[in-house]
Amino acid sequence: MRPARAVTIKRATLNSGAIMGFKMGIVGLPNVGKSTLFNALTKTAAAQAANFPFCTIEPNVGEVGVPDARLDQLAEIAKSKQIIPTRMTFVDIAGLVKGASRGEGLGNQFLATIREVDAIAHVLRCFEDGNVTHVEGRVDPVSDAETIETELMLADIESIEKRMQGLVRKVRGGDKEAVQQERLLKDALAMLEDGKPARMVSVDEEDAKAWKMLQLLTSKPVLFVCNVGEDDASEGNEYSAQVAEMAASQGNAHVVISAQIEEEISQLELDEALMFLEEMGLSEAGLDRLIRAGYELLHLETYFTVGPKEARAWTIPQGTLAPQAAGVIHGDFERGFIRAETIAFPDFVELGGEQPAKEAGKMRSEGKTYLVKDGDVLHFLFNT
């Protein structure tokens, strides 16, 4: 399918500020495998196709293309010269120690960085190894998770109390935004003082934007990453089972990964990596599961634009309307939106491309109220 029509003005560029991926912070206590996992991600990314190389933004920040077999299928059918996946940013956040909320270790740096991410991948040590010292002298992933959660909760409480003091004058003056902010901060504080993270607060849709602006540490969605030994990579172990139970009780997700295996895979050619995974009894790389779980965590989905020049994936939040989906490509597409020509992915593949799908009546013309679906192949028409 043709990509969205090019904007006629020369200054038009891709909307780099739109949601095309998301930023996930990798956190954990010292010696849990956090950096090993990040290193595996960076090496895997560096080995990707030249049209989307790994990008090191800072020493501890990198972007990696999100694997999606559908994109390869679309590109093959359309004979696209380039394949451009959507992207995900990983941030290897400074190791946390008990007392971080009071500035212990790299606490202040840790807390400042974590405010900037969309979600948290909390790496938990679920392996025994006498050669790798645990900061607390024992392997207890649930306790480790509680340590970090407690530090984040304490930091949130301190932050909320300071903010509420600064709002007093505006609230007395009847400032609507200040009144709303104070109400939300009080809800968060009550939850935190009850020993629960801020993400447990029920937020109305009308308050969603203001709530996000608070940037509370414990309001971030959490994905628990169980780092197990090689022998436990396919089935997990008693430690990962404990994490699974904890995650379920909190309404959070978890994945089981062997960071050691992922680092080994990252240094192999594709055929060798697939063979290695098969020998280990694994159907796919753990990093792929991590990325997919991250998408589900943030309720994201993917649509595609396809043509001879390129096949490209775009990330949007679930429930995005067609004009806003067009805006991910360029703001002019959203402002001048007329309609979206839409083909569902299964129809595009089964019928063999845009023209056959169109002839079979599978191309639809959708307007401004259309909710884009995961896997849609789209062509946007708009006024410049």
Global morphology: flat
Give the low-pLDDT segments: 1-20, 45-57
* Distance N to C terminus: 21 Å
Structural class: alpha/beta
The average pLDDT is 83
Put simply, the count of helices is 14
The profile of the biggest β sheet is: 7 strands, mixed
Strand content: 15-25%
H and E string: EHEEHEEHEHHHEHEHHHEEHHEHHEE
Number of strands: 13
Helix content: 40-55%
For the largest sheet, list the strands in their spatial order: 2-3-5-1-6-7-8
Oligomer: single chain
Please compute the radius of gyration using only Cα atoms: 23 Å
Please describe what this structure looks like:
It is a single chain. Helix content is 40%, strand content 19%. It is built from 14 helices and 13 strands. The strands form three sheets. Strands 2-3-5-1-6-7-8 form a seven-stranded mixed beta sheet, sandwiched between helices. A three-stranded mixed beta sheet has the order 4-10-9, with helices on both faces. Strands 12-11-13 form a three-stranded antiparallel beta sheet. Helix 1 (34-46) packs parallel to helix 8 (259-265) and helix 4 runs antiparallel to helix 5 (176-193). The longest helix has 32 residues, at 141-172. The protein starts with 22 loop residues before the first strand and ends with a strand.
